[in-house]
Design goal:
Layout: H1 3-14, H2 18-40, H3 43-60, H4 71-89, H5 110-128, H6 132-142, H7 148-155, H8 159-178
Length: 179
């Protein structure tokens, strides 16, 4: 469509000519929809935007000045501005306070660390009361995650002996910690 035809349709739209507005829509909607879609990157939002674009064109057709800009540039500017306005008006989804994710530090607080530190010192002291190989087996099984078979092989003892060592060592540790 020629520039003069577009200018004539916009001028008639300014006078309230619905037929001219319908023709303007038919001739320009595909291009203006493409502008909206390119900016918004969402078909549903672009469809909403294009409706608002034509409402603005209907209301502001009288502000178009043929000598200042081309008709298509004026129409594209309206579509572009409407799309940008829609992006700016998007509000981030609000989250209820109770639904907000925890952002607190998962590490223990100072009181808990002090308590754990004191408990750790007590456990270390009780482990020192055990024979060195028994203490190493307890640490290997319950701290490092070694299997009973791995510990038995490492210490060169049968599997059932390792189980006995661990059971008796845990009993001694419990008695020590309960003192």
């Amino acid at each position: 469509m020629s520039e003069q035809t577009l200018q004539g349709l916009i001028g008639k739209t300014a006078l309230g000519d619905r037929a001219a507005f319908a023709s303007l829509y038919d001739e320009t909607s595909a291009k203006l929809f493409g502008v909206c879609l390119r900016i918004l990157k969402d078909r549903a939002q672009a469809e909403d935007a294009i409706q608002e674009v034509y409402v603005r064109i209907w209301r502001r057709a009288s502000s178009f000045r043929a000598g200042q800009a081309s008709a298509m540039a004026w129409l594209v500017t309206i579509a572009r501005n409407q799309s940008i306005d829609m992006i700016r008006s998007r509000q981030p989804a609000s989250i209820e306070f109770d639904d907000a994710p925890d952002v607190a530090d998962e590490a223990p607080d100072p009181e808990a660390r002090a308590e754990l530190s004191a408990e750790g010192r007590r456990i270390d002291a009780c482990l020192k009361e055990l024979d060195a190989d028994r203490a190493a087996a307890v640490v290997g099984a319950y701290v490092e995650g070694s299997s009973y078979q791995e510990l038995a092989d490492r210490n060169g003892v049968p599997l059932n002996t390792m189980r006995t060592w661990l059971r008796r060592s845990l009993i001694k540790l419990r008695e020590c910690l309960n003192r």
